[in-house]
Amino acid sequence: MSVSFDELTSLYNLDELIEIFISIKKRKVSDKENTPFEMYEHRAYEAPVEALARTTPFLEQNVFKMKFSETNMMRYIQRLCEKDVSLTNTMIPLGSCTMKLNSAICMIPITWYGFANMHPFAPVDQAQGYMAMIEEIEDNLVAIT
């Protein structure tokens, strides 16, 4: 079961839904003639508890007082995103050698099922291909350095 809400959903709707679930949980076999919807159809929404009400000011910045259309709000959020530093708008920083030197195409084989899923405790006689590959890499690294 799932429940969806949109911008038209109010606290009253949410409260009704919660009450329906509570009534279903508490309902006895003899109550089957009254559905939860019938039981709470004329119920008035209760005001929130005053002790829980915020007493300090909040969201006082000018941006919260501006009237935005949805499009303008999305543009505002995008401008905020553009102020952030990320890999999409800057160089890759030093120290991330694997990101700079290993192209994605070269990394594809490590995702292949037969290559990526060798058990770490597989017997040596079942990992001869891995051993040959590691020895070749060792030889290449020696030659390069």
Question: Explain this structure to me?
Answer:
This protein is mostly helical and 145 residues long. The protein contains seven helices and no strands. The longest helix is centred in the C-terminal third of the chain and has 17 residues, at 128-144. The two termini are 61 Å apart.
Short description:
The chain is an all-alpha fold. Helices cover 44% and strands 0% of the residues.
Radius of gyration computed on alpha carbons: 31 Å
Shape: elongated
SSE pattern, N- to C-terminal: HHHHHHH
Mean pLDDT: 76
Beta percentage is: under 5%
Distinct helical segment count: 7
Helix content: 40-55%
Beta strands, count: 0
Indicate the structural class: mainly alpha
Extract low-pLDDT stretches.
none
> How many strands, which pairing sense, and closed or not: the largest β-sheet?
none
* C-alpha end-to-end distance: 61 Å
Top keywords for this entry?
0% strand; 145 residues; 44% helix; mainly alpha
Write the layout of secondary structure elements.
Blueprint: H1 11-26, H2 36-39, H3 70-83, H4 97-101, H5 104-107, H6 113-116, H7 128-144
